[in-house]
Structures are given as C-alpha cells and as structure tokens.
TrEMBL record:
Residues 81-176 form the Toprim domain. The gene is recR. InterPro entries: DNA_Rcmb_RecR, Rcmb_RecR, TOPRIM_dom, TOPRIM_RecR. It comes from Gehongia tenuis. Keywords: DNA damage, DNA recombination, DNA repair, Metal-binding, Zinc, Zinc-finger. The lineage of its organism: Bacteria, Bacillati, Bacillota, Clostridia, Christensenellales. This is Recombination protein RecR.
Length: 199
C-alpha cells in the first residue's frame, strides 16, 4: 500500500527531529493521525506557539518567553556570586537535573569552531563580559564539553577573564572526554562540578 502524501510529509518532518529515526517517525505519524482533530490541533498550536513565543533570555541566553528574563535569572533564591558558563540550553537542563548547582547561568550559544566559521563574534562573549562589570560575580565556572572545541572555548574565556580578577574555574573531567553534558548522568555531573579547578 502506497503512503499518502501528507502522511509521508509528516514522517519526513518528524524524522528530522534529533534522536528520531525513520521507524520512530513513522510510528509517531500514525499515532498523530489516529487521534481526534482537537488533540492534533492542540499539538500543532503548542509547537507553533513554543517557537513563536520562546526566545533566548535577555540576561543569560537560556530559553524564556520573548523579551522576558527566564525563571532561573528571576529566582531570588539563586546565588548571585557564581556564574556557570555552558554551551547551550540543554546543558542548563542537565545541570538543573543534577540539583547540585544553585547559581546563575550564561549560555554561549555554541563553541568556537573555526572549521564551521564560528568565531568569538558568533557567541555570547560580549554579554558575558557585560555581566561581570558590576563585580557581583566572584567566580565563573566553565562547563563546556570536554572535546576539542569545548576545551578551546574554555581556554579562550579563561584568557578573556583573567585581567578582570574574577576567579575562573573549570568543571572536573568526571564528564568523559568527547562526552556531552546533555547525556551525562546526575552523579557524574555532581562529581564534575564538585571537582572543578581554577584555570
């Protein structure tokens, strides 16, 4: 039996999501079309609204409602003297899942990668420097992935911040080399954070 064109388009769209192969995409597509129209409309609208109404937090770069600081930046219970620098929002979620860190975040939006044309101007280094101007932040913890690009980015930030006199530390390598924070278990993340070292 030949696939119906709209269903085929849905399968193709779903298979472009990370971690979704063609069989899973097909299973999800068949599930979606089997639901009632109200549920499908709600799903489609929630996807559209999430895209339309979500943007980087103007303070830290994590995801938030358009133009609004995120809940983490607004939380008065979080420490204001420590800043954890990560590559992306998924790393913020991973660190929050570990429940060991209670300071602020700064999301770079990637890592330095000259091969892909990503230089210092492509990342949120300027915003990081602006956040350190008032002197409230005493320690910056670098939590980029322990791969070549992540290490190069951490080294670059270390050199950038050294003249400011702020303490700069790097999470310990309990996170496996070549690994990604997003896929690291909570215990390993806790050990890596507790074992951070000064650069």
């Amino acid at each position: 039996m030949a696939a119906i064109a709209p269903l085929e388009r849905l399968v193709n769209a779903l298979s472009r999501l990370p971690g979704i192969g063609s069989k899973t995409a097909q299973r999800l597509a068949y599930h979606v079309v089997a639901q009632d129209e109200a549920w499908v409309r709600e799903l489609a609208e929630s996807i559209y609204n999430a895209k339309k109404k979500t943007a980087p937090c103007p303070v830290c770069g994590a995801l938030s409602e358009v133009g609004m600081p995120c809940a983490l930046c607004e939380d008065p219970r979080r420490r204001r003297d420590i800043l954890l620098v990560v590559e992306n929002m998924r790393d913020v979620v991973a660190m929050e899942r570990a429940r060991d860190y209670n300071g602020l975040y700064h999301v770079l939006g990637g890592v330095l990668s000259p091969m892909e044309g990503i230089g210092p101007d492509s990342l949120r280094f300027g915003e990081l420097m602006d956040r350190l101007k008032d002197g409230e932040i005493k320690e910056v913890v670098l939590a980029t992935d322990p791969d070549v690009e992540g290490e190069a980015t951490a080294a670059y930030i270390g050199q950038l911040l050294r003249p400011l006199g702020v303490k700069v530390t790097r999470i310990a390598h309990g996170v496996p080399v070549g690994g990604e924070l997003e896929y690291t278990d909570e215990l390993t993340l806790n050990q890596a954070f507790r074992g951070r070292r000064e650069l």
